[in-house]
Design a protein that fits this description.
about 55 residues; alpha+beta; three-stranded mixed beta sheet; 3 strands; about 25% helix; elongated; GNAT_dom; acyltransferase activity, transferring groups other than amino-acyl groups; Acyl_CoA_acyltransferase; N-acetyltransferase domain-containing protein
Length: about 55
Amino acid sequence: MLASAFNENGNFRGMVEKLLVSPEHRKKGNAGAMMRKLEEVARQHGKLLLVAAARH
């Protein structure tokens, strides 16, 4: 899941809040493909930096 930064000086930053791959689809390049797509979408929305949100 891609989210935008909440502060006004962080408009260039996108946050990757969740990236989940079910066990039966792991080790097949799916996470990498999803990250490449997230990067593409982020660029289309003017995001220059992607940051991984902290795990809880």
